[in-house]
Amino acid sequence: MSVRVTYYLEVISSWCHWAEPTWRELQIRYANRIEFSWKLALMDSSGLPVSREQCDWFYRRSGTIVKSPYMLHSGWFDPALKEYLAPNLVAEAARDFGVNDDRVRLAIAHAALREGKAVGNWEVAAEVAAHAAGLDPKRLLEHSRTPAVDARARATTAEFHALQVTQRPTFVLESSIGDRAVFSGLVAIAPLMATIEAMVADVAGYAAHKAHFGEVPGA
To answer: Are 128 and 107 in contact (CB under 8 A)?
Structure first.
């Protein structure tokens, strides 16, 4: 693939929820033309609400900004948790059972943000995920709590921070000729599409030039 798009997300992030229609549309529009993948970017306490009341305030703000006909549900919020490992690591663990698409993380996000389920609880998150992907909940739960899965999540979170951005979603667009663009916090599709089209065109231009003139002399 000449262009790759990487989506850094936190499974229960409200802004990632609002970005999902854009992510889905991009995958439809550019199916079999460019590469898509998602990676975890875990939030710590600095990115989480301090109370359910504050969470609802944030939901009202983001919901009105995107003109949503529904308000998100804050019932998932647990003041005792400073990091929501269960929903994220369960989604990550599902990859090792062959579930490499968006099904599991979307199911967990829906359970939390639309239904208010306590997905910060490992058993709840695993049950939701297993049902969505047809997996054994006990095996998925056990695997999600292994050091290897945790290490993967920490590694991709470190990648996210290395981009020197703070917002989730973050989309990183890269082309085979070395072009790169980072969109952090945006959920609108237009700027992403415009950049993808520009990258694809430039890659095609390089290919045409190579066909006519060959490799760089002296390379």
So the answer is: yes
Helix (H, G, I), strand (E, B) or coil at 184: strand
Give mean pLDDT, residues 78-106: 97
Longest dimension (CA), the chain: 65
- Answer whether residue 126 is part of any domain: yes
Partners of 172 in beta bridges: 6, 182
CA–CA separation, 213 vs 203, rounded Å?
15
Which CA distances in Å does 208 have to 34, 175, 198, 205, 213?
Answer: 19, 16, 15, 5, 9
- For the chain, the domain total comes to 1
Please report, for the domain that includes residue 203, its CATH number.
Answer: 3.40.30.10
pLDDT in tens, 182-195: 999 999 999 999 99
Domain of 45 in residue numbering reads as: 3-213
